[in-house]
Design goal:
5-stranded mixed barrel
């Protein structure tokens, strides 16, 4: 019996001289697929079985494993490969997907991934913005939506806040002073862990709310001043990495080339 899936190749491992083991991210999670002969330029399936490629796979099952009978390329996002920085971010996105993907159906997660890869293949948006938007939206999809409507204490919208990364909430500068909890953000807890925080402005807060709640196809359609964008990028990464409690080699590589 043949099965057809559509997905993005997020990992590839060479097997012997001509085959690959692919990890394909679909709207139903990741699927391991063995693709025979695709390392050869003579293989008709070779173009669809590369990293970052969005492809249609016709699979058959053998001994409990999936094998690719046919593979047809939909989009290879080729221009990503023209920039080392964009390739590094695309690799980070793929590694993050591989770590966080579940078997639960998620059309939205696949849409966010495809939109991110498509944006990376263009020069319309900065790589840092694409990376941050991906991190923040995926955090929300994983159930880690931060409460950033207003200050958690006074419930008011202010000009500046401190984002409590671990608790996913905001506290304004006035409430911090009134409650005398500045030290909370400077000291370590009983386990020796330092509480991570990021100071953000109200435009950054609004941008974060937009990314969390907008349609997947619109996640990059916002603008804030450059200094606020730097803060947005920092906050999104800190929140994502701390919520999933995992580091990534591809992220380390990205910073090494920057």
């Amino acid at each position: 019996m043949l099965n057809e899936i559509k997905g993005v190749v997020i990992r590839e491992t060479n097997i012997n001289e001509s085959d690959k083991l692919l990890t394909v991210f679909t709207d139903n999670g990741t699927v391991p697929v063995t693709a025979k002969g695709v390392r050869s330029i003579k293989s008709k399936n070779m173009p669809a079985c590369q990293m970052f490629c969005y492809s249609t796979f016709t699979l058959y099952e053998k001994n409990g494993y999936y094998w690719a009978k046919e593979a047809s390329l939909i989009n290879n996002f080729f221009d990503i490969r023209l920039s080392v920085e964009r390739t590094a971010i695309a690799s980070y996105i793929c590694e993050a997907i591989d770590y966080t993907a579940t078997s639960e159906p998620s059309d939205e997660y696949l849409s966010v991934v495809l939109n991110s890869l498509y944006a990376l293949s263009l020069e319309r948006y900065s790589p840092e913005k694409i990376k941050a938007v991906f991190e923040l939206r995926v955090s929300s999809l994983l159930g880690f939506t931060p409460d950033i409507d207003a200050c958690r204490s006074c419930k008011q919208k202010k000009e500046r806040y401190t984002l409590d990364i671990m608790n996913g909430s905001l506290i304004c500068s006035e409430c911090k002073k009134i409650q005398a909890i500045d030290s909370y953000f400077e000291q370590t807890d009983e386990n020796g862990f330092r509480y991570p925080v990021v100071n953000i402005t109200d435009p950054v807060r609004e941008a974060m709310r937009y990314v969390i709640h907008c349609k997947p196809k619109d996640i990059l359609n916002f603008n804030i001043p450059p200094e606020d964008m730097q803060c947005f990028v920092k906050a999104a990464e800190a929140y994502f990495i701390n919520q999933i409690d995992h580091g990534f080699k591809t992220l380390d590589f990205y910073y090494s080339i920057k």
